[in-house]
Amino acid sequence: AYFKLPSDSFKYLSWCDIEAHNIRGSQLRCPRVREAGPSKEELFFRGEEHAVKERKQVTDTEKWQKQLQENWENCAELNLSFQDLGDLYQVENFERILRRLIRVEKLWLVDNSLTDLSAIRLPRCRELNVNKNHFTSFKQLPKIPQIQHLSLAENNIMTLSGISDFRHTPLESLVLKRNPCEFQERYRQLVFSSLPNLKTLDGIPKLPEDCSPPETRGFFRMCTIL
Fold first, then answer.
1. Which of 7, 98, 110, 132 is most deeply buried (CB count within 10 A of its CB)?
2. Which key words are in the record (predicted)?
3. Which of 36, 23, 43, 95 is nearest to 62 (CA)?
C-alpha cells in the first residue's frame, strides 16, 4: 500500500524570499536550481492537482530580478552538487541550466544521480567533478574540449571504451577510483596508452612502468620452450 508522508501536501510549495539577511552569494556552496514544481497541466494529467495551492502571481519586475539572479551564462566557477533531482521536471530544469554554462571553467556536479549528459557542451570547462553519479560510459559525459582535470570517482564505468575521445584534449589528470574499470587487467597501462599526454591517474603520477604499451609488456611475460 502507498502511504503519503505528513509533508506530502507541501512538496510543491514555492520557496520564500527572505528580504533581510547577511548571506553573500559567494557563501552559497550548493544552491538549489529546482523550480517550484510542475505546471498545473502536468499535475492535472498526474491526477495531483489537489497537491498544490494557488501560487502567487509573479510580476514582470520580479521575473526580471530572477533573470538577473540566474545569469548562468557568466558563471566561471559553479557548484551544483547534491541537487536531489527526484522528478523529471527537476532534471529538465537542471539540464537547461547546464546548456547555459558557456563560460564555466570549474564545475562540480557531485551526487546528482546523473546518467547521460552527452547532449551538453561545456566549451570552456577546464575542471569537471562528476563523482558519485550513475555514468556507465565515457560516451555519456558532456562535450568538454578544454578539459584538464576530470574526476569520475564512484560511478559505474565498466570499460575504458570511449576514453580515447579525450586524446585530443589538454587532459592532465583523471580520477576513476571505485569504478569497475579500475579492476581491468593492466588498467593503468591501458589508460596511459590511450591518453599519452595524461600526467596523473587516480592521484598517482605517471610511472615508468605505465609507459610501456600493454602488448609489449605481455610479450615479455611469455615463455618460449624449445
1. 98
2. Leucine-rich repeat, Repeat
3. 36
d(CA 34, CA 52): 16
Nearest to 87 by CA among 183, 171, 144, 12: 12
- Burial of residue 225 (CB within 10 Å: 0-12, 13-18, 19+) is exposed
- For the stretch 203-225, pLDDT in tens is 999 999 988 655 544 444 555 45
Specify the DSSP class assigned to residue 174: E
State the residue for C-alpha cell 559567494. Answer: 26
What predicted TM-score, i.e. pTM, was given to this entire model?
A: 0.68
| pLDDT single digits (tens) 17-48 | 666 677 766 666 666 655 556 667 777 777 66
* Closest CA relative to residue 35, chosen from 81, 86, 76: 86
